[in-house]
Amino acid sequence: MSEPKTKYDRQLRIWGELGQAALEEASICLLNCGPTGSEALKNLVLGGVGSITIVDGSKVEIGDLGNNFMVDETSVGQSKAKSACAFLQELNDAVKAKFIEENPDTLIITNPSFFSQFTLVIATQLVEDSMVKLDRICREANVKLVFVRSYGLAGFVRVSVKEHTIIDSKPDHFLDDLRLNNPWPELKSFVETIDLNVSDPAAHKHIPYVVILVKMADEWTRSHNGNLPSTREEKKEFKDLVKSKMISMDEDNYKEAIEAAFKVFAPRGISSEIQQISNDSCSEPSSNSSDFWVMVAALKEFVSNEGDGEAPLEGSIPDMTSTTEHYINLQKIYQAKAEADFLVIEERVKNILKKIGRDSSSISKPIIKSFCKNARKLKVCRYRMVEDEFTNPSVTEIQKCLADEDYSGAMGFYILLRAVDRFTANYNKFPGQFDGGMDEDISRLKTTALSLLTDLGCNGSVLPDDLINEMCRFGASELHVVAAFIGGIASQEVIKLVTKQFVPMLGTYIFNGIDHKSQLLAL
Amino acid sequence: MADLEAPQSKSRDLDKLLLRAGNLVGPDFYPGTEVKALISQLSIVSSSFSDFVIRLLSLRVLVVGAGGLGCELLKDLALSGFRNLDVIDMDRIEVTNLNRQFLFRLEDVGKPKAEIAAKRVMERVSGVEIVPHFSRIEDKELEFYNNFNIIALGLDSIEARRYINGVACGFLEYDEDDTPRRETIKPMVDGGTEGFKGHARVIVPGVTPCFECTIWLFPPQVKFPLCTLAETPRNAAHCIEYAHLIKWHEVHGGKSFDPDEPEHMKWVYDEAVKRAELFGIPGVTYSLTQGVVKNIIPAIASTNAIISAACALETLKIVSGCSKTLANYLTYNGGEGLHTKVTEFVRDKDCLVCGPGILIELDTSVTLQKFIDMLEEHPKLLLSKASVKHGKDSLYMQAPPVLEEMHRPNLSKSLYDLMGRVQKDTVHVFGTALKNEEKQSSLTKLRVVFKGADGVADMDTAIGA
């Protein structure tokens, strides 16, 4: 293996060559390189993003030495962006690193077109006003955006993208696509070649559970008017039926069949989530449709025609007790069906592309193949503009969270993180930023937070005094550990957005460093 | 404003948390200017400091592991006001570490992780002292671990966690009424990651569950049955394990397989390819071969950063009381959306490791040899080849031979005499225990009570064995 490939080995095992290639093509812009931004970027530089551009207009102060690993004593008085850039470059010389010594808030106003050159912008430590402006710019320019803020023991991460579609969502637990209760003809005829009553005990204990369950599901539906087991009693009865076929207690294949019986009970056809994606207005193909939506249109056609209600077959099977021969044959039957389904989808994709006036081969085979393999796992994430959320959040959600023991801390911080920006707009400092006048700041922050709640339509809602006190105690400090935590989350979201694998967070993640009852709030 | 004129301190941000009183803080939190002095002028240790500050000043933290989590932990602790850190790791730097272990460079490959990690953090953060230990954790004297006030674990193996947990819990002493004695509690924070997932937890022995109380959180590793490998291989991993576990020994006899030897790995890969071709099995690659043979856990920088930061934050809270403490287990899952969850696990009262200990009643005449034999029979212990330690004194050691010979005369002496003729005390026994049908190193605490020694009759019922 070559050195770069070896270096990235542990992450290639997660997002593969395609994910790595996407990272290496990405250009990332960081606004403000305090510890939050530096730490977020550090994780991306190590992973090998294509390029980074750091925008920060401040100089390194003594205080920065205590919370930022990307500055040191020799850089005091110099550009913080320059220092962070140099230290980050040390971590990975494959990354193109540059810096711009300018205040991000100014840049947002003076040069909005600056941002359109990037794949993604990580905006750290911005106040509300700048967030709203930058969000508009990035939406317009189709640039992905992640907001990050550390504030004492609190903070947030918020993704803002108009639409993020995912083919390879890599869910943790997902039901295999085995079609045990809905076998296609080739699987049926293979199953028929195997006799469950074979007298040779060695053969009996090596019949794959897929074969056992297809047979038993068939036997069951025949005697139950075509219905699958649905009640608890029926499910138990079905498992007992499988068990009754065992001829000795050491038959692992039957034990596996009983454990996998739930796969027989799963409803046929596509899930409600995929149904919803098929019904999305974007699934009507037009010349503006992205590749993803063109393929969804093809999927929709497939489901109501050749698929007979099902998505294309995934084509892989889990390991199971079996002879090598049975297993390999079974694997080939699943692969062949997946390949046949793929060819149908490919044809439909080509036709749709032609119809909307695009080159019929403009979506590559491997992409269509990956789409087919993951057709049951597609995800679509859409994000409100932050301005909409700020002016018109879900009031019921806010009130519900404030009343819920597990959510009240996080929701309290959400309100207070916004209240401190109003505070600073009024008083030209953050509450508790300086040591004197703490009591006055506490009472002012309380008033500000309550008026914010009223403005949002949450009349009568209150925040705990203890939380308001804590917020003033934090005094807009940026603690290294909080920055590393929140910056870490931000970089993880960036990786998901750039590689188009896994599922990014939907909503605003509020970090609660007091008791770690952090929450993702959907507002 | 006067505040603006004041010379800035390096602890500008940390000061807010450490100098100001708060309502949502720990019971032992005494904020004040002394803490600031601690952080900015460490060399001036004044008698005017409060106990709280003196406690912080002399505080020593041990970071176990200088890998993905350990590198982050050292940086995080150094930037959280900690001044005296030690780090222990037996490994040398490899190229595959470089995508996340940010303190290492390509030219460091082959050097000890602990030494380079300590050097890099000290270069960047002035005032911090980090002592590296290029060593196996088992090779340190138990007393070494007693030098630290808190232990932060950045490990990737269950075995290593069990070991450190056993050591830390071994220092714990209980009062007559089974209350843990505060000064003997050695808290641990522990982190672990895999891909986009991870956990951070706080272990306060005697107060919150120790690693052993909740060992069920770590499911046993799945191993393929040998008959599958030998007779009915079905996938690439089966072919690889056949080459690694069966074929290697057939061909190489006594020569043991070394996963870090590229030629060995290549041999296993070639054999796996041959076997896969024979059975028509797809998917054997060199990368998969390494993954299966070395049981590689995928790892990325971001997850390590998140989990380590949570651990370092809890470390800061435990020593300063500046906020509430995590109670007691945080799980993080960033694969599908983002989920973080806090679970408050409960202690296992009968835990062999952090509990008050297994009560053993003995006659004063029982010899050390007889005692060691009893450990093997004891249903809760099943401990063979036991070494016995009483406080700092080794009573018997199985190895190395020199020390075994030195302690051998003790075997025929009575344990009562060896323990200084006290009616009851704690001893630690270290040996091989049978757990889940597997032999494992085990360190266990025993409370020995001598029958017939003064006042013991009442004690028995009080303890309620």
Automatic annotation (TrEMBL), chain A:
GO cellular component annotations of the record: cytoplasm; nucleus
This protein's UniProt keywords: Nucleotide-binding, Nucleus, Ubl conjugation pathway
Entry GO MF terms: NEDD8 activating enzyme activity; nucleotide binding
Domain called THIF-type NAD/FAD binding fold: residue spans: 8-501
Biological processes, Gene Ontology terms: auxin-activated signaling pathway; DNA repair; leaf morphogenesis; protein neddylation; reciprocal meiotic recombination; response to cytokinin; response to water deprivation
Chief localization: nucleus
Annotated pathway: Protein modification; protein neddylation
Localisation: Nucleus
Function per UniProt: Regulatory subunit of the dimeric E1 enzyme. E1 activates RUB1/NEDD8 by first adenylating its C-terminal glycine residue with ATP, thereafter linking this residue to the side chain of the catalytic cysteine, yielding a RUB1-ECR1 thioester and free AMP. E1 finally transfers RUB1 to the catalytic cysteine of RCE1.
Family label: Belongs to the ubiquitin-activating E1 family. ULA1 subfamily.
Protein name: NEDD8-activating enzyme E1 regulatory subunit
Organism annotation: Eutrema salsugineum
Lineage: Eukaryota, Viridiplantae, Streptophyta, Embryophyta, Tracheophyta
Automatic annotation (TrEMBL), chain B:
UniProtKB keywords: ATP-binding, Ligase, Nucleotide-binding, Ubl conjugation pathway
InterPro entries the UniProt entry points to: E2-binding (IPR014929), ThiF/MoeB/HesA (IPR045886), ThiF_NAD_FAD-bd (IPR000594), Ub_act_enz_dom_a_sf (IPR023318), Uba3_N (IPR030468), Ubiquitin-activating_enz (IPR035985), UBQ-activ_enz_E1_Cys_AS (IPR033127)
Catalytic activity: ATP + [NEDD8 protein] + [E1 NEDD8-activating enzyme]-L-cysteine = AMP + diphosphate + [E1 NEDD8-activating enzyme]-S-[NEDD8 protein]-yl-L-cysteine
Function: Catalytic subunit of the dimeric E1 enzyme, which activates NEDD8.
Full protein name: NEDD8-activating enzyme E1 catalytic subunit
GO CC list: cytoplasm; nucleus
GO terms, biological process: protein neddylation
UniProt-listed Enzyme Commission number(s): 6.2.1.64
Segments forming domain E2 binding: 360-451
Protein family (similarity comment): Belongs to the ubiquitin-activating E1 family. UBA3 subfamily.
Catalytic residue positions: C227
PROSITE patterns attached to this UniProt entry: UBIQUITIN_ACTIVAT_2
A molecular-function term among this protein's GO annotations: ATP binding
Associated pathway: Protein modification; protein neddylation
Pfam families, alphabetized: E2_bind, ThiF
The keyword Ribosomal protein appears for this protein: no
